[in-house]
Fold:
Amino acid sequence: DIQMTQSPSSLSASVGDRVTITCRASQGIYIYLAWFQQKPGKAPKSLIYAASSLQSGVPSKFSGSGSGTDFTLTISSLQPEDFATYYCQQYHRYPPTFGQGTKLEIK
Amino acid sequence: QVQLVESGGGVVQPGRSLRLSCAASGFTFSGYGMHWVRQAPGKGLEWVALISYDGSNKYYADSVEGRFTISRDNSKNTLYLQMSSLRTEDTAVYFCAKAGDSSATTRTFYSWGQGTLVTVSS
Structure:
């Protein structure tokens, strides 16, 4: 299975900050990488697919980049509603696998 | 808009069976692959199973292969997960999710239901 490793596991930031989360795959996955946001007690929400393509309705403050094994999710101008847990997921090979999550907390 | 509503969760003893359902609306259900993904309490996301748009292809995580069966009824716009020989480690919130809209995005998740909690305990 392809292992996905996110860093950091947790992150404290302030409203208005810009943050970056990193996701590394154990083998090359081209651009078959998605990002999800999950708030406590809620379903995940799809943010980005194909490493950098925003899902419909997702604000442009979210951006993704990378290819191969190294990927990033950047969130600009943090607002209170952005504090959540973020997951990356590879879909290059079965089984689809997720990173362990990055919990973004308010400083 | 896409709506996915899971049901069927509950408390079940180890070794017993349970069937989950996911009612879909707001899109052409018969045109998309569908997934089950689970999340143990306080843990991350784990993919469980995928069924192709017409039900002809099914894929499972090793952890559930041989115990869980994914199926769908396109006439009822409903996805199912039959879970047998349940173990305590199957305790989780189970989400159904709509696959992407191309062959390249079949193995990712574009829309999610709210989830249904399955607790396996004696």
User: Anything to note?
Assistant: The longest strand of chain A covers residues 19-25.
